[in-house]
Amino acid sequence: MNKLGVFIKDTFWKNVKSVSFITMLLSPIILIAIIAGIGYFIAQNESEIPKVELAVISEDPTIPQMLLESDETLTIAEDITTEEEARTALSQDEISGYLVVNVEDNRLKGSLTHDGLDNHIPIIEQVLTSSQILLRANELNLTPEQLESLNEPAVLDTQVVSVDEGEIVEEDDLERGIQIGSAYVINIVILMFIMFYASTVIEEVAGEKGTRMMEVILSSTTATTHFFGKLIGVFLVMLVHILFYIIVGTATFMYFRNHELVLSLIGDLDIGAILVQFLEFSSVFLIIGVIMFMFIAAFLGSLITKTEDIQKAATPLSLIVVLGFYIGLFAMAQPENIVVVVSSFVPLMTPFVMPFRIATDTVSNLHVWLSLGGAALFTVFLAYISLIFYRANVLIYSDTNFINTLKQSWTLVRSENSK
Fold first, then answer.
1. Distance CA 359, CA 271 (A)
2. Which of 66, 139, 212, 253 is buried most, with the most CB atoms less than 10 Å from its CB?
């Protein structure tokens, strides 16, 4: 095996077997499983809510029936017909409360005495309001058909559209929601991947340089071979990471796609086709974004002399990543804001911002391709610049601060180019 392959294999297996990678790999799945488990138990507990008994003292027999139909957790104590009996039953914890309903001056008035029926009060108010409407309808001699027509709500149909090259294109609300939700997920995944794999590259380079192993390694190979061996190895680890999520996500979708709850939510919508269409570009932005920051990380790692300075070296990179992340979130609310539009064409911001513009249909395919091409060209430029500085810095040790080390690195690169 050639030397490049040795570096790739060593970097790949060392990181795949690491505890940090396994934790990074499994933590989102464990978190989703915990959230789903909590939701399941909450739903189970809600379905097993014990019924409470309420006494209703009223001359109108329809009120107890309406309460039963409106609140499945209520039962009516039919044997209690007077307020005195209800008060006695409440004092002995036989019921949870009693409702006294009277008609005064053609107006329905209710009085609720209870012990722990706060969650049922809105439904009781709704039932009394309905009874009041029926009472007024009888006074006005309205027929049931007339009353139903008065209570019929207005109908409002909504249609989300987008404008594509002067033409109005109809969209589906659910489809739009899926795309926007996917954009949020992509933004978070990009943040996590960049922070994790950029830090991995910095640790790979700075660890060997800080322990003076770099001198031994470069005595038998070139800095260029070492540079690309480390980056390709980490990149392959990232591909395994992505492939793992694709397999788990596909298996989960295939298992639950015919579930009653899923079918009730999505109906006949082909969610798989929507996600594939959206992820065609977003996944490419994810990969290019991670590669860009990996090149930056390799350059920053080459500036480090001591392993304890790794966090300091990663600070500039972290600030850029966090800035891009928040601009991406802002893009969801204001996708056509000038800051968002400009940032979507700035290569370091593109992976965070462009997925949201794609999800909200505020960018044409031409602009997406231009942004993607610009990010790809900038990645090649970063690779070239990072390699130059890497070869100049990898065997340079300095006790000065990070800024002075960067200045020395620039001076060294200029002097080598002049030669």
1. 14
2. 66
Phi and psi at 203, nearest 5°, equal: -65, -35
Over range 156-165, report the average pLDDT.
60
Burial of 64 (0-12, 13-18, 19+ CB in 10 A): buried
Is 268 among the domain residues?
yes
C-alpha span between 15 and 9 (Å, rounded): 10
Closest CA to 332 of 359, 367, 370, 368: 359
Predicted TM-score (pTM) above 0.90: no
> Do 88 and 204 fall into the same domain?
no
- Specify the 3-state DSSP secondary structure of 212: coil
pLDDT band at 370 (very low <50, low <70, confident <90, very high): very high
Q: Are residues 269 and 362 in the same domain?
A: yes
Answer yes or no: do 260 and 323 share one domain.
yes
Q: Are residues 211 and 321 in the same domain?
A: yes
165 or 242, which is more confident: 242
Per-residue pLDDT tens digits for 272-290: 555 666 677 788 888 899 8
- 82, 106 Cβ separation under 8 angstroms: no
Distance CA 408, CA 414 (A): 10
CA distances from 190 to 230, 304, 349 (A): 21, 25, 11
CATH number at residue 138: 3.40.190
CA 279 to chain centre: 15
